Each structure stands twice: as C-alpha cells, then as structure tokens.
Amino acid sequence: xxxxxxxxxxxxxxxxxxxxxxxxxxxxxxxxxxxxxxxxxxxxxxxxxxxxxxxxxxxxxxxxxxxxxxxxxxxxxxxxxxxxxxxxxxxxxxxxxxxxxxxxxxxxxxxxxxxxxxxxxxxxxxxxxxxxxxxxxxxxxxxxxxxxxxxxxxxxxxxxxxxxxxxxxxxxxxxxxxxxxxxxxxxxxxxxxxxxxxxxxxxxxxxxxxxxxxxxxxxxxxxxxxxxxxxxxxxxxxxxxxxxxxxxxxxxxxxxxxxxxxxxxxx
Amino acid sequence: xxxxxxxxxxxxxxxxxxxxxxxxxxxxxxxxxxxxxxxxxxxxxxxxxxxxxxxxxxxxxxxxxxxxxxxxxxxxxxxxxxxxxxxxxxxxxxxxxxxxxxxxxxxxxxxxxxxxxxxxxxxxxxxxxxxxxxxxxxxxxxxxxxxxxxxxxxxxxxxxxxxxxxxxxxxxxxxxxxxxxxxxxxxxxxxxxxxxxxxxxxxxxxxxxxxxxxxxxxxxxxxxxxxxxxxxxxxxxxxxxxxxxxxxxxxxxxxxxxxxxxxxxxxxxxxxxxxxxxxxxxxxxxxxxxxxxxxxxxxxxxxxxxxxxxxxxxxxxxxxxxxxxxxxxxxxxxxxxxxxxxxxxxxxxxxxxxxxxxxxxxxxxxxxxxxxxxxxxxxxxxxx
Lengths: 267, 384
Prior knowledge:
The complex is a heterodimer.
Chain A: E1 20-29, E2 32-42, E3 46-51, H1 58-66, E4 73-78, E5 81-83, H2 88-93, E6 96-99, H3 111-115, H4 139-152, H5 170-183, E7 188-192, H6 200-215, E8 219-223, H7 227-233, E9 236-241, E10 244-250, H8 256-265
Chain B: H1 2-12, H2 20-36, H3 43-68, H4 76-93, H5 98-123, H6 127-146, E1 151-153, H7 157-164, H8 169-196, H9 204-228, H10 233-251, H11 253-263, H12 265-270, H13 275-301, E2 303-305, H14 306-309, H15 312-324, H16 336-355, H17 360-382
Antiparallel strand pairs in B: 1-2
C-alpha cells in the first residue's frame, strides 16, 4: 500500500517515532473552538485511549483523522512524514481505519459479503471488456478469507459464515466490523465506543480482540466513556477537555481517579 | 405469540425459506382449482395462464430490482404503456422495421426509468412520489401518443410472432432437459468444490429439494405446454431476462451493492458505493423491463390501448407479485425468480376464479387477502 506504513524496523523499540501524530489541530465551529491546538499520538503495538467528557472534542478529532470532516489547521504525520488527509479515501490510503459506533454493517448480508463490501473479489479479472461491477463474484475465495480472518482474530463463536449479520450478537457484529477494518493493509485502527451496549462476556470478547490487534503491531485508538474498559486494555490514555490536551497518562503510573479528575476538572 | 413469530422469521432465513411459502401458495391454489374446476389443470388453460401472467411477471421481475433498494416504482404500468404506444406508432403509423422499433421502445423505457432514478438519487425525493408523478405524467403521454382513438392496432408480423410462436415440442423438451441437467451439474460441482475447500455445505436434503423443485417445475411445465402448443417464445424471453437479472443481482458486485444499499444505505456509502449510480441504473432496468412488458402486451393483444396499460390493475398486480414472491418492501431482501412465482400465484388466482364464475369483486378481495398474508410474512421476518 504506502511505503510509510510498512516500515516495521523502528516500531518495537520504545524510543522510536510514534506511528501516527496529530499536531496542533484546530477546528472551529463558528465561534466555538472545538479543537484548540490539540496534539495526539499513537505508536504501533500500542493501545491508546482517548477519553474526555461529552463535547470535549473526541468525535471531532476522530472525524478529522478519518478525513470525513476537515480541520482548520494542523498537521498529521505517519512515521514522521507529513500526510494530507482530506477525505475518507485518503485516510484509508494511509492505512487508517475506523470502526464506527454504529458499525456500518449491512444486516441483510452475510459475513463475507460485509467483510468485502465495496471491495469484492472477482473472477475473470482479465476480461477487460466487461465493466468491473458486472464481473462474477468469487464467492468461494471471499468465504475462505472470511474464515481465515475470523480465525486470525480468534473469533470462535460464529458458527456459519453464511449467517446474516442481523442474526448475530452485538459482540459478534463488533468483531466483524473490526475484522473488516483490519483486513486491508491498515496500520491504525480507531474504535469508537466499541463496548457500548455490549454485555459482560461480549465486552470481554471485543477487548480480547483489541489486544490481538496490539499483538499484530497495529496502532489502536479506543474512544470510550467506560474507564474500566479503557484501563483494562489501554497502554496510555490521552485526556482531552474542551478541545485542549489535559495530559497523557501512562496506565501503569496512574489511577482511574486521576483520570476522572482530569476529565472533569482538567488537572 | 412472539415465539411463534420468531420461528417464522428464522424459517424465512433458511435456504429454502424464501421461496417455499410462495411455492406452497401456488400448489395450494392449483390443487384447489384443479379439484373444483377440472378444466383449470388442462394444458390449454395452463398455456393461457402462462401467457396471461407473462406481462405481470415481466413487470414484477423489473420492479423487484428497485424493491431491493427499498424504493418503489409506481410508474411501471404507465411506462409499459408509453413504450407500447411508441412501438405501435413507430410500426403501424410510421412503418418502421419492427426490430428497430423494438430497440427504440426498449431504450426509451430505460431512459424514462433513468430520468426518474436521477431525480430520486440527486434531488432526494422519495421514489414513491417521483414515480407517482411518473404514473400520472406517462399515462397522459401515452394518451398523447395514441391520439384521439385511444388505441392503435399492431399487425406487424414480427411483433405478433413474439406471442404466437411456440418452440417445436421436441426442442422445448430438449431445452428443459438441458436446463435441468445443467442445474444438477452446478449443484454437484458447487458441493464438491466447497467440500474440497472445507467450506460448509448445505445439507443433502436442501440440495435435493432444490433440484426436485426445479426439475419438476421445468419438466412439468414443458410437458403441459407441449400437450397444447409448445413452449411460447414469450416465456423463453421472460426466463432469459429473469436469469440475467437474477445472476446480476446475486453474483456481481453491482447486485451486491443493490442489496447493500437496500440493507443499510449509509454503510454502503461509507464503503464507497455510489448510491446515485445504483439508483439510477436500477430504475433504468425497471424502465427497460417495463418496456419489455409493453412489447409483450402489444404482441399479445395485437393492439395498444389506453385501458390495457393505464390504471391500477397491471401496476398493483406486478408489485403484488413481487411481494408475494417474498421480496421485502423495506428493501434488502428478495429475489427476481420469486417474482415470477408470485406472478403465477396472482395469475392462477385470477384465472381460477374466472373459471369458477367468480365476479371481479371476489377476485379483488382474494388478491387482497393473499397480498396481505405475504406482507405480513415479510414484516414478521423483518423483526429480526
């Protein structure tokens, strides 16, 4: 995909460059400063929590990173090189994938269909005179890849690949949405409230999945209100308040109380 | 009660669940009328039943494409009428060579569909309203084209031959057998590839039932039609078009996109599917199929009149047929093949009630009841 994200050499040493950096991001809505000189970074193989109260700017930052809403000023860098993200296509070109809170799955389609939606594998690719969207689908190989990626993510609760998404549990849906996000050459995965509306065991399923993303050297960002979950899987936690950075906490050196205080009082 | 509804919903999601209800309805109707009106099961009656259902079937297959999107097209009957009228004027009045006239009228239908699709996609007006305007406007246009008499005769031998020609009985039978063998081969091949790749397979029972349904339907219908005149070319055209649309909707990324837009338009947009293109082209396909319906109608009635195409029955029967076939009005679920079965249900009901001397009032009430049952099944399975 792009060469910047495939540079694996300096990823595991703690002193290496952050994989993704957002620097001095400013976004105004009319007179309201939604993001005011915000900085954010995440390393490969790291789970970064992004927390803050409602209206703190979490969603705005995420929309800026995903390219669905442009910021007024600021720079994004991947492996130290400045990149321009001005559309969702740009973001996915740089390996940035977002799992939205609503998951954006089609409930009437089965698992392989959802995993490959908009990016289907096709047969007879060499037949140039047939428009691409009328080439026959390669159902079998898509199903094989779907099984493969479920296996890689160690999702074992799904019995049939031909199950329609509408018949799966919330945790299974989340797994599929995550599988879709990482199946392409993505290096940065942003999860928006991945455990909201999930039961206890399903939450665990999803958090395990997050840890597996970390093991596979992805840079993972979790946006969540649930501090318990954040503490369970995140390595570091970025707290923002009223569009500004408060502090970046190291999980091992901080307590939930500190974070709550940072979210609510900014100290 | 909820438990029962859940069971039905689960049943609908099984491999056979989508077309078994309409199949059962069809067989039940045939048995009922077969007992009460023996003439119903006669080859001659079946021949005319198929011919009668062809126009509705064509429109139902077409409209399924937009129902899958969660849209609706109320103008199919009127577009069929406009295209049939165009065809009649081009051939009868202007003496154009029939194949050219046919191509022009089919393209005109697709064009009208695309225009409506573009308005729906770009101006974002609900398809219900746009096609309602189309229904009214095209009825007027049809009147204009037909002129003061309100009807034009179509005597062109080529156009007439579409509905009068039948395949020689042997060729019809050979084609049916080839179809059955091919279908069986594809099932077996698919099964063996899947088991070789360690993918889950449908159970033997499901495969067997699928194959039996298909072969009984194909061979049985061919024998029946052969006993009277043979398989009409018309039916062959309809089957070929349905096969094409069925294949496009299930086996190409275009068809996948249609289902995706019908299921969750926002997700489809986020993965980069152009909703505008999908909508415009789907409505174009409906327009094209409506024009085919118009052509079939013109060929069958040997004339194009305002009354044959305008008004409710044709439109409502077509949408009814699609829904009876199990295509969801809410979008994202359905199949063009089931639309044909649905058209046969409606056609058989009308035909059987005609034979038993029922009045129009009874026919309407029966059709209404069947439609209601179909929509209820749909709504129940949607709960999931």
